[in-house]
Amino acid sequence: EKAMKPITLDTIVKKSEDIFTGTIDDEMVAMSIANGKYYQLNRTGSIILSLLDDPRSIRELCEAIQCHYRVDAGVCRDDILEFVNEMAMLNLITVI
To answer: In DSSP terms, which residues pair with 5 in a beta bridge?
Structure first.
């Protein structure tokens, strides 16, 4: 298994091709066809994943989320980097 490149603000990511997303009880879930697993996403995670239908940089994601929420830029960055790293490890998003 090849080591992932570190994800930075300039990393471009997009939703993986084999991911289905849907809503269960107002919570968004993502399903990976590759491994048949479901992942539940909170509201922010849902927004991030829906933004990733098109490739975007982490920086663009941060700007988009800050338009939705009044959140400190540093906190936003840290949270998004953590979320994206997790999603990348689960193969829900692809680093381009």
So the answer is: none
Closest alpha carbon to 93 in 5, 32, 3, 2: 32
pLDDT by residue for the chain (96 residues), tens only, comes to: 556 678 999 999 999 998 888 888 878 899 888 888 889 998 888 889 999 999 999 999 999 999 888 889 999 999 999 999 999 988 899 999
Cα gap 19→12, rounded to integer Å: 18
Instruction: List, in sequence order, every beta strand (DSSP E) within 1-96.
Output: 12-15, 19-24, 27-32, 38-41, 56-57, 93-95
